[in-house]
From TrEMBL:
The record marks 25 as: Participates in the substrate recognition with KAPA and in a stacking interaction with the adenine ring of SAM. Its main location: cytoplasm. SUPFAM superfamilies: PLP-dependent transferases (SSF53383). GO terms for molecular function: transaminase activity. Keywords: Aminotransferase, Biotin biosynthesis, Cytoplasm, Pyridoxal phosphate, S-adenosyl-L-methionine, Transferase. Its EC number is 2.6.1.62. The keyword Lyase does not apply. Substrate binds at residues 60, 153, 283, 316, 400. This is Adenosylmethionine-8-amino-7-oxononanoate aminotransferase. Belongs to the class-III pyridoxal-phosphate-dependent aminotransferase family. BioA subfamily. CDD domains: OAT_like. It catalyses: (8S)-8-amino-7-oxononanoate + S-adenosyl-L-methionine = S-adenosyl-4-methylsulfanyl-2-oxobutanoate + (7R,8S)-7,8-diammoniononanoate. The gene is bioA.
């Protein structure tokens, strides 16, 4: 194939994209720029002009093994040739069975039942439904509220929106359509600091006053992701487990962002040495190669759901247990089981702490946070995403800031040299924030 033909194939009509395609959290009237990607390998994204960007986001925290990994690609190709999809109602297949076996093996002993869904948001919806049906099976119809903590994020569908932050979150404009849930203050004790037991007082009072209506407590363990990239103390999470036990409330852990090694433990709940009653997984479940999520629960929860008036669990997505997605997940988990991630994430954490530390001295940097393969610069005000995005592209990296955060969550296979390029770009942009504007904007130096 000649160069011109290849160029035509790789061409992306960005004007058509801007006019017709709706991107996440973007206005169609004033759309943010979109950069055309034609290929990806390892930790690099290739743009249609031939330039390459080191990916600092793992495509929204999912591509933990990097792009075009031969083991995952081969697993998907082989599965596509045999069975790409079949309904899961009344039919099963080897990829679903083997994936469930792996998940039961990897997670805590209490989690024995696996529901395979489409996406992280749906995994949360499924978890909330499980909790409500469980209490129906216990002949307790009063328990219909979900308790959670502020600064949380659990997805974009309506039940998931109801447990996202009610004040500063993304979903505050849908009014009465969103179910009103119970919210406790966000934890303040830092993961790397001392734990203050007094911050449990308010959530303990909520349990005391409302436990007869609370079906479950739903939280992101250790790291609150899209709600601010906040890392809270492991003792706080351990105390939540005790409160749930004391007041007979189920504990749902949303590990969609933190699962499969991101925080330095295979699952973030391991920092607190606790078990969930219901666990949500997604994103890195397939290595980020195709959408798939899982909601796991205990025998006790499954029995309660089965004893509910419906007699069955009331959920069944069309693409539930998709064989192609399950095959990708099996390959990704087999890579996880090789345990290279432990060395990789530890090295990333050490390097991030070393290379980002001095950014705390920058004028508009409020905080520097690192945990596992996550590095965060919290700025003093909201960032101009479009301008900063362009500056990062100019620096040869893909880093997508949001709100007042410049952060990276790179693939685990990132090299020390690539990671240094990412941290250098973060600090270069943070050091050149324009102090004369309310919305912080980057000063372009050409």
């Amino acid at each position: 194939m000649n160069t011109q033909s290849q160029s035509t194939i790789n061409s992306i009509d960005l004007q058509f994209d801007r006019k017709h395609l709706w991107h996440p959290y973007t206005s169609m009237a004033n759309a943010l720029p979109a950069y055309g990607v034609v290929a990806a390998e390892g930790v690099e994204l290739q743009l249609q002009d031939g330039s390459k960007l080191i990916d600092g986001t793992s495509s929204w925290w999912a591509c933990v093994h990097g792009y075009s990994h031969p083991k995952i690609v081969a697993a998907m190709q082989q599965q596509t040739a045999k069975l790409s999809h079949v309904m899961f109602g009344g039919i099963t297949h080897r990829p679903a069975v083997e994936l469930a076996r792996l998940l039961v093996e990897l997670t805590s002993p209490k989690l024995t039942k696996v529901f395979l869904a489409d996406s992280g948001s749906i995994a949360v919806e499924v978890a909330m439904k499980m909790a409500l049906q469980y209490w129906q099976g216990k002949a307790n119809t009063d328990k219909q509220k979900i308790l959670t903590i502020k600064n949380g994020y659990h997805g974009d569908t309506f039940a998931a929106m109801s447990v996202c932050d009610p004040e500063g979150g993304m979903h505050t404009m849908f009014g009465e359509l969103v179910t009103k849930q119970l919210f406790a203050p966000a934890p303040q004790s830092r993961f790397d600091g001392e734990f203050d037991p007094e911050e449990l007082n308010e959530i303990a009072s909520i349990f005391e006053d409302n436990h007869q209506q609370i079906a479950a407590l739903l939280v992101e363990p250790i790291m609150q992701g899209a709600g601010g990239m906040r890392f809270y103390h492991s003792d706080y999470l351990a105390a939540l487990r005790k409160l749930c036990d004391k007041y007979n409330v189920l504990l749902i852990l949303d590990e969609i962002a933190t699962g499969f090694g991101r925080t330095g433990k295979l699952f973030a709940y391991e920092h607190s040495q606790i078990e969930a009653d219901i666990l949500c997984l997604g994103k890195a479940l397939t290595g980020g190669y195709i959408s798939l999520a899982a909601t796991m629960c205990s025998d006790e929860v499954a029995q309660g759901v089965s004893d509910s008036p419906a007699g069955v669990f009331m959920h069944g997505p069309t693409f539930m247990g998709n064989p192609l997605a399950c095959a990708a997940a099996i390959a990704s988990i087999e890579l996880i089981k090789e345990n290279q991630w432990q060395t990789q994430v530890s090295a990333i954490e050490t390097q991030l702490k070393t290379e980002l530390a001095d950014a705390i001295n920058y004028e508009h940097v409020n905080d520097v946070r690192v945990l596992g393969a996550v590095g965060v610069l919290e700025m003093s005000s909201t960032l101009n995403t479009a301008e900063l995005q362009q500056e990062f592209v100019n620096l040869g990296v893909w880093i997508r800031p949001f709100s007042n955060l410049i952060y990276i969550m790179p693939p685990y296979c990132v090299t020390a040299e690539q990671l240094s390029k990412l941290t250098h770009a973060m600090k270069t942009v943070a050091a050149n924030i324009n102090p004369s504007t309310n919305d912080i904007a980057f000063i372009s130096h050409g």
